[in-house]
């Protein structure tokens, strides 16, 4: 297989090539590479990366453990006779620690993990089930949401991923379901669950379905304040707040059955043909073209249904499709800011210790990590990101990136960079690179 095709594969299944990666894939073979990426547990983490991640002690914390640690810190403050302003500063510093460790953990894995596809899918699914992580209680919970609700399920069964997000306090808070109770239902989560997470805007549901689903999820919320440290997973079903009675949802009657009503609704949605089509379209749009071929979407949707929402099976079909390998798909995707910055740093290969400047760069480029306010997440199309201002801002990053100013390393060699990128350049670009070296 040609370097150009291997580069296309790398650009889709990872955040871009690293030095020597094209040759590595040539040695093991394209099929073996794809198969290993679809089974990330078969790929061990490098010892150094494991050690770096172990220093990020807030990453493995579950919601209840986060509250416990915060309470312990604030108790220490009380023993020091701090006033409320001082206690608030303690909370703010803890929230900042969670944010910095979450972003560092994401960057480290993006740049150094050999489980390339897993990282691409963590980004994809967090964006699909987006929660805004920079406001209110979710300053505490957003990192746990990625680590426990998203990351374990990115290549597994869609139903498990859907359920994990539905139960996590970050989602319950973000879309206001924790405030929804009988007599005063809140439709936000139900609406976005149908429109964004499962069926899609054209999925055939009605306003009555939204209302019924909102009633089904009444009572799904957080433990009472006094018990939030005890309930480690951060989920609590309050029978007293649940709307009683049967619910008619998507043509089916769901009998009154407390929390089980929500699980039945999630089962219906996860196995719905409209969900299969919606998810398949988004995957094809991410890995193939902004406007993916209908034939491919139809094929993927069929596999989704036949495999009961097995994400790895859907992707396996996608990566082996003729549409994925067609020449017109090569370099067809315009990278969003996160993908752009990540791919540039991977290509250079310098080790990075301080990721704060990268957070600043992403803020400047309009894609702050964990900072999308709206539930639809960041767009993944050229139309959303390509502009003259975008190109100027990205060009201005060339100097600090190529000069090794964002990491521990020497300025990049033009010759090595060309080899890393498969020498896939126009004559004009090649001339500019050669003249700069």
Helix content: 55-70%
Largest sheet: 2 strands, antiparallel
Order of helices and strands: HHHHHHHHHHHHEEEEHHHHHHHHHHHH
Pick out the low-confidence regions.
none
Mean pLDDT: 93
Give the overall shape: globular
- What's the number of helices? 24
Q: Strand order within the widest sheet? A: 1-2
Radius of gyration: 23 Å
What features would you describe in this structure?
Among the domains are: 41-157; 273-329; 334-436, no CATH class. The protein contains 24 helices and four strands. 39% of the residues are buried. It has helices at 3-13, 21-28, 30-38, 47-54, 63-79, 84-112, 116-128, 138-150, 158-167, 169-174, 188-197, 207-216, 259-270, 273-287, 294-306, 311-319, 322-325, 337-348, 356-364, 382-385, 388-396, 398-402, 414-420, 427-436, and strands at residues 220-221, 236-237, 247-249, 252-254. A two-stranded antiparallel ribbon has the order 1-2. Helices cover 58% and strands 2% of the residues. With 437 residues, the chain is mostly helical.
Task: Give a short summary of the structure.
This protein has 24 helices and four strands. The protein is mainly alpha-helical.
Set down the secondary structure blueprint.
Layout: H1 3-13, H2 21-28, H3 30-38, H4 47-54, H5 63-79, H6 84-112, H7 116-128, H8 138-150, H9 158-167, H10 169-174, H11 188-197, H12 207-216, E1 220-221, E2 236-237, E3 247-249, E4 252-254, H13 259-270, H14 273-287, H15 294-306, H16 311-319, H17 322-325, H18 337-348, H19 356-364, H20 382-385, H21 388-396, H22 398-402, H23 414-420, H24 427-436
Antiparallel strand pairs: 1-2, 3-4
Helix pairs in contact: 1-2, 5-6, 6-18, 8-9, 9-13, 11-12, 14-15, 15-16
């Amino acid at each position: 297989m040609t370097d150009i095709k291997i580069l296309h594969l790398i650009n889709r299944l990872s955040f871009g090539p690293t030095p020597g990666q094209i040759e590595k894939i040539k040695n093991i073979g394209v099929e073996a590479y794809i198969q290993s990426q679809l089974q990330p547990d078969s790929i061990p983490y490098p010892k150094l990366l494991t050690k770096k991640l172990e220093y990020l002690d807030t990453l493995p914390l579950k919601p209840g453990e986060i509250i416990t640690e915060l309470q312990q810190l604030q108790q220490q403050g009380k023993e020091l006779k701090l006033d409320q302003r001082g206690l608030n500063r303690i909370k703010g510093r803890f929230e900042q620690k969670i944010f910095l460790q979450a972003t560092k953990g994401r960057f480290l894995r993006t740049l150094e993990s050999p489980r390339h596809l897993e990282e691409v899918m963590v980004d994809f699914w967090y964006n699909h089930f987006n929660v805004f992580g920079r406001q209110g209680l979710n300053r505490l919970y957003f990192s746990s949401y990625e680590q426990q609700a998203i990351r374990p399920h990115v290549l597994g069964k869609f139903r498990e991923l859907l359920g994990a997000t539905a139960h996590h306090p970050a989602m319950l808070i973000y879309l206001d379901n924790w405030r929804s109770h009988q007599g005063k239902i809140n439709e936000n989560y139900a609406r976005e669950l149908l429109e964004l997470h499962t069926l899609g805007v054209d999925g055939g549901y009605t306003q009555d379905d939204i209302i019924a689903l909102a009633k089904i999820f009444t009572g799904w919320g957080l433990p009472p304040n006094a018990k939030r440290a005890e309930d480690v997973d951060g989920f609590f079903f309050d029978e007293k707040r649940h709307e009683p009675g049967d619910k008619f949802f998507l043509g089916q009657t769901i009998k009154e059955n407390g929390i089980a009503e929500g699980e039945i609704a999630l089962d219906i949605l996860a196995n719905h043909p409209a969900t299969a089509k919606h998810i398949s379209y988004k995957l094809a749009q991410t890995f193939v073209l902004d406007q993916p071929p209908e034939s491919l979407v139809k094929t993927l949707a069929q596999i989704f249904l036949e495999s009961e929402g097995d994400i790895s099976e859907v992707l396996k079909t996608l990566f082996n499709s003729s549409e994925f390998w067609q020449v017109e798909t090569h370099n067809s995707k315009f990278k969003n800011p996160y993908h752009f910055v990540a791919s540039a740093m991977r290509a250079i290969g310098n080790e990075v210790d301080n990721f704060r400047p990268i957070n600043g760069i992403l803020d400047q480029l309009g894609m702050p990590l964990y900072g999308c306010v709206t539930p639809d997440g960041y767009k993944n199309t050229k139309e959303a990101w390509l502009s003259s201002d975008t190109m100027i801002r990205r060009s201005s990053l060339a100097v600090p990136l190529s000069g090794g100013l964002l990491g521990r390393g020497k300025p990049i060699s033009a010759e090595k960079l060309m080899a890393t990128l498969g020498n896939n350049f126009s004559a004009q670009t090649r001339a500019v690179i050669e003249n700069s070296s």
